[in-house]
């Protein structure tokens, strides 16, 4: 049995990332071809994909990262380590080069996520972190609880973070898994 499968969510067939998915062991989820396009957000597309794929039947976790970003070669191993430590959600460390084409946006994301993680580690009793939409995993059992991905806003990563903080779901941060 394969250890992983890769699914790519794109805006539509004109999306430049669509060509990335045209290869072996890659499947494409096209937001424009779904049953409904009521929520044309990453969270809405994730919900549609999770409901269709039902990962809790075959996989222990779902890893999400942006197709136009890169992750270090140890990213999946680091997410697996956090999973084995019992974390329900794990996130890699956000770095600048992924947004190098837009310096202001890249620096803003780096500063805000870094500050949020520092505040979270210093202020919560759980040692929680802040999920960034660029690279994280979610246990399939958590997705099964909702039979989908209920955090469907434009900032689905922050919605997931807030939910985990509110109900005490253990989250982990890998400083070695660069995203």
Automatic annotation (TrEMBL):
Q: Which residues form the signal peptide?
A: none
Q: What is this protein called?
A: CAZy families GT2 protein
Q: Which InterPro entries match?
A: Nucleotide-diphossugar_trans (IPR029044)
Organism equals uncultured Eubacteriales bacterium
